[in-house]
């Protein structure tokens, strides 16, 4: 008799529960190894053994048992009904995979969005930093200019030059020129200029044959104030006879194109 | 009648067992009551036969039906008829109670893995009328030798193993094995021959 026959023969005894521990373990190990013949034999043996229940005479349990049971189940029936176990149309692993993909997609999208947000934030921050730095640089330049202007104006070695207007209703401008620090032109209540016109400073050389030297262009503030520094005048102070200011087109001119509005002799 | 309790087909237009079991999933108390009325006499008769004590038998029957109520989803009508499944559940519970009353065993009582495996009815069994099968089983058992019948009953109703039966009957182990095997084979062949 083969091993398979031996196992098939014990299927009924196994279903009956009559096998001793050692035989039972051996049969269960054989089943676990996957034997369709013994599986089938066992299924039929279980059926056969279940038929032995017919040997017991029927008997009526007490009415109290039924009442007790009905009380129990009625109590439990008031809670949420059990979900019927249904075989899912789509296997669980597929749902799990789809769910994982959805989560991954949402996460990636969120991450990309978050990254974009971070990049925008960094760009914004960089722009703000650049603007801040530019403002600081402008402030620094303005501060240096102001400091230089203050130094020129207050320095006793600076030469004071009064620029007198050619028209009565125009204010007088004042210039201070320090041989090393530079030249400052200031004024108050200076009228606004029309269109794109600007003011331009000219240095009139002592040499009669020499032409006026063009210097910077400038314009008054909205409140009429005027304060301009010429850090490096094109001429040395001893060579200059006078300062003049004309009205010129935007960008200035190489030669004066109008009569000077202000003129002041450098003493 | 015991037989009527086992025979769903005898109910005419009443819902089959499987339909009632399905209604248990919806917490249908009336379906539960109907299942109980149909099968409690068979279940109680079997459990009482095993335990021989009415009070304990009723406790087991109560456990069996409560387990059915709470785990109805475990029964799959595609894999076998309901009544053998229910009776196997009842037998297992009764034998557990008979064998082991230790605390450890009691803790296992609510575990769902104790539910019986599904039995697959052979083709020849499906064709056999339930009532006739019962009569046939009893007749076939009566036709066995007293030793075969006694050995099978000790295994089925008292849960004894081959060795324990051999000790109880003071017979050689091999002899007891043969009685049980031959007795069951005769029962199987007899049921086959009935169709």
What does the model show?
The complex is a heterodimer of chains A (267) and B (195). Chain A has helices at residues 3-9, 11-16, 21-32, 36-50, 63-77, 92-154; strands at 159-165, 173-178, 182-187, 198-205, 213-218, 226-230, 240-248, 262-265. Chain A has 267 residues and is an alpha+beta fold. Chain A has a domain at 159-265. Chain A has an 8-stranded antiparallel beta sheet, with helices on one face. In chain A, a hairpin with a 7-residue loop joins strand 1 (159-165) and strand 2. The relative contact order of chain A is 0.08. By secondary structure, chain B is mainly α. The longest helix of chain B is centred in the first third of the chain and has 23 residues, at 29-51. The relative contact order of chain B is 0.10. Mean pLDDT of chain B is 81; it is low at 1-12 and 102-113. Chains A and B meet through helix 2, helix 4 and helix 5 of A and helix 1, helix 3, helix 4, helix 5 and helix 8 of B.
What is the fold's blueprint, element by element?
The complex is a heterodimer of chains A (267) and B (195).
Chain A: H1 3-9, H2 11-16, H3 21-32, H4 36-50, H5 63-77, H6 92-154, E1 159-165, E2 173-178, E3 182-187, E4 198-205, E5 213-218, E6 226-230, E7 240-248, E8 262-265
Chain B: H1 2-6, H2 17-24, H3 29-51, H4 54-70, H5 82-99, H6 103-107, H7 123-126, H8 130-143, H9 146-158, H10 162-169, H11 173-194
Helix pairs in contact in B: 2-3, 3-4, 3-5, 4-5, 8-11, 9-11, 10-11
Please summarize what this structure is.
The complex is a heterodimer of chains A (267) and B (195). Chain A is an alpha+beta fold and 267 residues long.
Instruction: Report how far the terminal alpha carbons of chain B are from each other.
Output: 24 Å
* Oligomeric form: heterodimer
Strand fraction of chain B equals: under 5%
Unreliable runs of chain A: none
Mean pLDDT across the residues of chain B is 81
Low-pLDDT ranges of chain B: 1-12, 102-113
Protein chain pair with the most extensive contact, residues per chain: A-B, 47 and 69 residues
